[in-house]
From TrEMBL, chain A:
MF terms in GO: ATP binding; protein serine/threonine kinase activity
GO cellular component: cytosol; EKC/KEOPS complex; nucleus
Organism from which the protein derives: Phaethon lepturus (White-tailed tropicbird)
Official protein name in the record: non-specific serine/threonine protein kinase
Alphabetic keyword roster: ATP-binding, Kinase, Nucleotide-binding, Transferase, tRNA processing
Chemical reaction(s) catalysed: L-seryl-[protein] + ATP = O-phospho-L-seryl-[protein] + ADP + H(+); L-threonyl-[protein] + ATP = O-phospho-L-threonyl-[protein] + ADP + H(+)
One GO term of the biological process aspect: tRNA processing
From TrEMBL, chain B:
Protein name: EKC/KEOPS complex subunit TPRKB
Predominant localisation class: cytoplasm
Lineage of the species this protein comes from: Eukaryota, Metazoa, Chordata, Craniata, Vertebrata
InterPro entries registered for this protein in UniProt: CGI121/TPRKB (IPR013926), CGI121/TPRKB_sf (IPR036504)
Keywords assigned by UniProt, alphabetized: Cytoplasm, Nucleus, tRNA processing
PANTHER family, alphabetized: CGI-121 FAMILY MEMBER, EKC_KEOPS COMPLEX SUBUNIT TPRKB
Gene Ontology cellular component annotations, sorted alphabetically: cytosol; EKC/KEOPS complex; nucleus
Source organism: Phaethon lepturus (White-tailed tropicbird)
Length: 154, 175
């Protein structure tokens, strides 16, 4: 129930995986950059953040940890306005029910977010709000996220 | 009328799909298939939602055939086995292969690209009307397919039924 590229073929002989190519897609990273640069209404970015929060909540509720959440690992299917998200690059993912792992997953995204996209604190706040509202297990996760944030500060 | 597709990963191979409706001799065809006297995979079209489903299964079968790692004894048996979401070979044949009471059949051939296949050899043995692959969706039993592949409503909200099926076919041996 998570939008990700379809696996077409797994070749064990050469250890390769053939995946669906999301034709004409943009990374969330590029999208945020272009919206900010064009000076367009950023309220659409808040809706995007809410969609991201919802997607991550569903992923974590299935105990799937992405492991490398960044805005370049989330794609937007064309047309971009539909905000149809696709998660990619599961090279570092694993299964875990631990709030610690989920908290770290979100923390990694937060760091990537704020370092790549200036002035997006409100966006990430909206993302977390929807995450908390969508996920059935969000309480302990957000708590851990706060703890991890404190640990991260030098 | 038939659909021919060259496999991108195995360019010397072409997969040909032929669809027949109003089939009268399903039992005889099934017998021939069991004996190995018919050159093709005889598939129950009600379990197929799109030709791509066949291509993914055929691609996998051709790959395993080339590296000598098939689970079944022939390429055509392997295609049918690849379509199944589980590892029970006889179950795969029962669910995806042709049954005596079937009124339609999807025949899959894998040919050398160099050779021009003689489709007459196959079509002459089928007592039915050959129709275009465009008619396949009309024959699909979507409820049966969803049940077989255990597709959840959650999944359907995100992607197409075909997406769910292809993922199961391609990752069957991983899980």
């Amino acid at each position: 129930g998570i939008s990700a590229p379809v696996v077409y073929f797994v070749d064990y002989a050469t250890n390769s995986i053939y995946l669906e190519d999301i034709v004409g897609s943009t990374t969330v990273q590029d999208h945020i950059n272009s919206v900010q640069q064009s000076g367009n209404d950023i309220s659409s970015l808040l809706v995007l953040a809410e969609k991201m929060g919802e997607l991550l909540a569903r992923m974590h509720d299935e105990d799937l940890i992405h492991g490398d959440l960044t805005t370049s690992n989330i794609l937007l299917r064309p047309p971009t306005e539909k905000l149809d998200l696709v998660l990619i690059d599961f090279g570092l993912s694993f299964i875990s029910g631990l709030p610690e792992d989920k908290g770290v997953d979100l923390y990694v995204l937060e760091k990537a977010f704020l370092s790549t996209h200036p002035d997006t604190e409100t966006m990430f706040k909206a993302l977390l709000k929807t995450y908390a509202a969508t996920s059935k297990k969000s309480g302990p996760v957000i708590k851990r996220l706060d703890e991890v944030r404190l640990r991260g500060r030098k | 009328m038939e659909l021919t597709h060259q496999l991108e990963l195995f360019p010397d191979c072409s997969v040909i799909l032929l669809l027949f409706n109003h089939l009268k001799n399903a039992a005889a065809l099934r017998k021939k298939a069991m004996e190995g006297s018919i050159e093709g995979a005889l598939i129950n079209p009600t379990m197929i939602v799109d030709p791509f489903q066949i291509l993914v299964a055929a691609n996998k079968a051709v790959h395993l055939h080339k590296i000598g790692k098939m689970k079944t004894r022939t390429l055509y048996a392997e295609i049918i086995f690849s379509l199944s979401p589980n590892n029970n070979i006889s179950d795969a044949f029962k669910k995806f292969g042709i049954s005596d009471s079937d009124t339609a059949v999807l025949i899959v051939l894998v040919v050398d690209r160099e050779k021009t296949p003689n489709l007459e050899d196959i079509t002459s043995q089928v007592e039915g009307q050959q129709v275009s692959l465009d008619e396949l969706p009309q024959l699909t039993d979507t409820a049966k397919v969803k049940k077989m592949y255990k597709v959840t409503p959650q999944e359907e909200k995100i992607g197409t039924l075909l997406d769910s099926i292809v993922c199961r076919i391609s990752t069957k041996d991983v899980l």
